[in-house]
Design brief:
- The chain is built from 5 helices and 7 strands.
- The chain is an alpha+beta fold.
- It is flat.
- The model has no long low-confidence stretch (mean pLDDT about 95).
- The structure holds adenosine-5'-triphosphate and magnesium ion.
Length: about 260
C-alpha cells in the first residue's frame, strides 16, 4: 500500500478482528487501484486532447513566421490559430469545472430551483443558435410550474445547456422538451430528430472525453452527469424509436 502498488495487495487470510481488518484493507486497495487507473486515464486523455490543438497552432504559427504561407493562406492559418485557441480555452474551462465538481471544494450551492423558470432561461440562451440553424423547439413542461428541485441553479443550467446544445448540433429540424411529474419524481426529456447516438458510444456516453466523429471535447455530458448526480438526480441517454437521441433527467421533487 505504501508503495502505491495497490494491485499487488493480497488478502491475508485470518479469522476474527484481524480477518475483518485484512478484508477492509484489501477492499480499500482495490478501490484505490481503480481510482488510480481512472486518474491516469484522465491525464492521458487530457494531454492528448490538449496536444492536438497546440500542435496545429504551433504548426501554423511557424509556417507564417517562416514565410511558407502566402497571401490568402496566411489569413486562413491565422483563422485556424484563433479557432484552435478557442477550442483549447473551452477544453481547459471544461476540465477545470470537472475537477472542481470532483473535489470537495465548496463550489456547489444548493437551494430550491424552479424548474419551469430554469428551462425557460436555458432555451432563451440557446435561442440564437436555434434560429441560426433553423431548428424548431417544441416544449411542454408547464407541469413544472410550481415544482422545485434542490440544486445549484447555475450548475444545473450548465447541465441543461450542455444537453440542449448537443441536441441543436445534431438535430435535423426539431427538438422536443417534455416533462412529467409522477409519485414525487420529475422526468424531463430532451430529444431531437437527428441521426441519434452511435450504438457503440451509448454505454460510455457520459465518460470523459468520449465523443463521436463530429464531437468536440467530449466533456459536456460528463459535466452534465456530474452536476445532475450532485443534485440527487439521474441522467440517461438513449435513441428514440423514430430516430434521434433522447436524454432523460430524473429528479426527486423537493419539498416546499
Ligand atoms: N443529441 C445528440 N445526437 C447525437 N449524438 C449526440 C447527441 N448528444 C451527444 N451526442 C454524441 O455524444 C458525444 C459526447 O457528447 P459531449 O457533449 O459529452 O461531448 P461533445 O459535444 O463532443 O464536446 P463538448 O465537450 O464540447 O460538449 C458527442 O461527441 C456526440 O457524438
Ligand atoms: Mg457537447
Amino acid at each position: 500500500m505504501k508503495g502505491r502498488q495497490f494491485s499487488k495487495v493480497k488478502l491475508v487470510k485470518a479469522g476474527g478482528e484481524i480477518g475483518s481488518v485484512a478484508q477492509t484493507v484489501y477492499d480499500m486497495a482495490g478501490e484505490l487501484d481503480r481510482f488510480n487507473s481512472a486518474q491516469k486515464q484522465f491525464f492521458q486523455n487530457a494531454s492528448h486532447e490538449l496536444k492536438s490543438p497546440l500542435m496545429s497552432i504551433a504548426g501554423y504559427a511557424e509556417g507564417i513566421r517562416d514565410g511558407i504561407f502566402e497571401g490568402d493562406s496566411v489569413r486562413k492559418g491565422l483563422d485556424i490559430i484563433l479557432s484552435e485557441s478557442g477550442r483549447l480555452r473551452n477544453i481547459v474551462t471544461e476540465m477545470t469545472l470537472l475537477a472542481k465538481l470532483d473535489s470537495e471544494e465548496d463550489i456547489y450551492k444548493a437551494a430550491p430551483v424552479n424548474l419551469n423558470e430554469l428551462i425557460q432561461e436555458t432555451t432563451e440562451r440557446m435561442n440564437p443558435q436555434l434560429v441560426k440553424k433553423g431548428i424548431q423547439l417544441h416544449a411542454s413542461y408547464e407541469v413544472l410550474d410550481q415544482i422545485s428541485v434542490t440544486a445549484d441553479r447555475d450548475k444545473l443550467l450548465q447541465a441543461l445547456l450542455n444537453v440542449i446544445s448537443n441536441a441543436i448540433r445534431h438535430a435535423e429540424r426539431n427538438i422536443y422538451i417534455q416533462a412529467n411529474v409522477e409519485k414525487g419524481q420529475i422526468q424531463l426529456t430532451v430529444s431531437d430528430d437527428g441521426k441519434g447516438i452511435p450504438e457503440e458510444l451509448l454505454p460510455y456516453l457520459f465518460h470523459r472525453f468520449v465523443k463521436g466523429k463530429d464531437g468536440e471535447s467530449g466533456l459536456g455530458l460528463a459535466i452534465a452527469r456530474a452536476i445532475v448526480e450532485r443534485c440527487g438526480g439521474r441522467i440517461t441517454a438513449d435513441n428514440r424509436r423514430e430516430g434521434g437521441a433522447q436524454f432523460s433527467f430524473g429528479f426527486p421533487v423537493s419539498a416546499g
